[in-house]
Amino acid sequence: MNHMIDTKLFRRPVFVVRAIAAMMLATLLVGQAAAQSLIRDTEIEESLREFGDPLIRAAGLNPKSVDIYIVNDPTLNAFVTRGQKVFFHTGILVEFDSPNQLKGVMAHEVGHIASGHLARSSDTQRSAYGTFLVAAGIGLAAILAGEGQAGAAILGSSQQFAVLDVLRYSRINESSADQAGANYLEISGQSGKGLIEFFEKFRYQEVMSEQGRFPYFRSHPLSSARIDALREVVDESPYTETPDSPEDIHRMKIMQAKLRGFIDPPQTTFVNFPETDESEYGRLARSVAHFRAANLPQALISVDSLITEFPQNPYYHELRGEILYKSGKAKQAQPSLRKAIELKPNAPLLKQALAQSLIDEQMPEGISESVTLLKSVLQAEPENGYSWYLLSQAYGHQKKKGLAQYASAEQHYARGDLRTAQSFAGRAMQILPRDTPQYRRANDIVVVSEAQLAQNRRR
Ligand SMILES: [Zn+2]
User: Fold this and answer.
1) What's the 165 CA to ligand 1 centre distance in angstroms?
2) I need a surface site. Which of 71, 334, 425, 443 has the fewest CB within 10 A?
3) 19 CA to middle of ligand 1, Å?
4) Lowest mean pLDDT: which of 40-44, 165-169, 202-206, 226-230?
5) Domain for residue 359, yes or no?
6) In the listed set 206, 236, 266, which residue is the last one of a domain according to the structure?
């Protein structure tokens, strides 16, 4: 998991959503902000798309316009925000007993998007979001940019949390999202039983006090009537008994083993995945846990056994590279990262990882290769703030000061820090030749930031 953001080991601000026109559930922000950052991992993102895209299509939406994010937070939660963004906490991802349960929750959340429940939220809620966005806009963008700590600090000082707590789906919205979700599952030829199972598993939450509940069941209130109504539709579907495919089960177990390895304390992982567990999942979780316990030799033994058995799997090469890189061995990480890219040429995050290890070495050839790699990452993910940051470093090593300032401007713009973006862009414009695309883009950043800042002041 090259892109797990583990603030203790490795701080990797990554992905950025330029538009801050997102609202987040109160539960995301109240009292938990400190733990949060986004996780980027090519393999897990691919799995979630694999699970989610058929449901998104069944809802009549374009999968390309629906973003799926993974929040590094141990609490049980999943939610959607404006701008068609679906968020899963790691705490819910490791809780699913089957892919069908995950798909059930995904279908339900997509149901909220497709039914326009966010757009139709009450005036009280809308004005609360408005106030919130002004007060904490940078904090939110920073969290979306993966800069969890910075974001949490800003958000923590905001007075808006209490107001935000009003966001909660009504029982009517919940039932209609259930029905819509069940429909998407049926259209895509899948069972709706997983969603019922998931609700049954947490049915006891219904009788608990509001504060005692998991965030997911605070914003999505459970009730027996709701489960019964869902069961009626699901029972009538011709796909009720359709089982999960072995491929999907495998994908989910890999995802959970990897998350467990990165999130749980290593000792917990060694209990949950003891040495006697020689499965792929066991070895994967243990290799990560050994690495996190600073036992590099043992981590490499586990990951190497996976590579020997699955030499064509890019993610084991990626993991090997990540383990070496984060253990301070940038040069030794590179062959593994190169192999991962060879097996999976179009994955931006793999290129970003190689670029980072090249920059660390500070060799001229490596630096110029990293510039090429990062340009390619940014073509695929223009709002990837971390790659802009790396690019500014690479240009710095090349003594290309104007380009370095420009890349810093993009980095700060991506994370929503308009003032800093403007200042870097202004400095870049004093150095860059006028007829370059970077000069024009720096100029755009100055102009657009000025307009946005003025608009914020008027509010
Ligand atoms: Zn709901």
Assistant:
1) 15
2) 443
3) 24
4) 165-169
5) no
6) 236
CA of 228 to the centre of ligand 1 (A): 16
For ligand 1, the distance from its centroid to the CA atom of residue 76, given in whole angstroms, is: 13
Strand, coil or helix: 167: coil
Please report whether residue 249 resides in a domain.
no
Ligand 1 centroid – CA 92 distance (Å): 14
Give yes or no for a contact between 58 and 35, defined as CB atoms under 8 angstroms apart: no
Q: Check residue 120 and give its pLDDT.
A: 55
Which CATH number goes with the domain that contains 212? 3.30.2010.10
Compute, in angstroms, the gap from residue 47 CA to the centroid of ligand 1. Answer: 22
Confidence of residue 168 (pLDDT cuts 50, 70, 90): low
Report d(CA 148, CA 34) in Å as an integer.
7
Q: Is the pLDDT of residue 124 over 50?
A: no
Ligand 1 midpoint to CA 97 (Å):
19
CA 411 to ligand 1 centroid distance, Å: 34
Structure tokens at 406: 């420009």
For residue 108, is it within any domain? yes
**pLDDT single digits (tens) 320-361:** 999 999 999 999 999 999 999 999 999 999 999 999 999 999
Give the pLDDT score at 458. 83
From ligand 1's centre to the CA of 53, what distance in Å? 19
What gap in Å lies between CA 195 and CA 202, rounded to an integer? 11
Global pTM? 0.84
Q: How many domains does the chain have?
A: 2
pLDDT digits (tens, 9 = 90+) for 290-306: 999 999 999 999 999 99
Kindly report the number of other CB atoms within 10 A of residue 263's CB atom. Answer: 22
Q: How far is the CA of 413 from the centre of ligand 1 (A)?
A: 33
Residue 382 maps to a domain: no
> Which amino acid is residue 151, in one-letter code?
G
DSSP string spanning 43-56? HHHHHHHHHHHHHH
pLDDT band, residue 43 (cuts 50/70/90) = very high
- Give distance in angstroms: CA of 366 to centre of ligand 1: 49
Q: Give residue for tokens 């904490």.
A: 136
Range of the domain at 201: 26-236
Please report which helix (H) or strand (E) contains residue 376, including its range: helix 364-380
CA of 78 to the centre of ligand 1 (A): 9
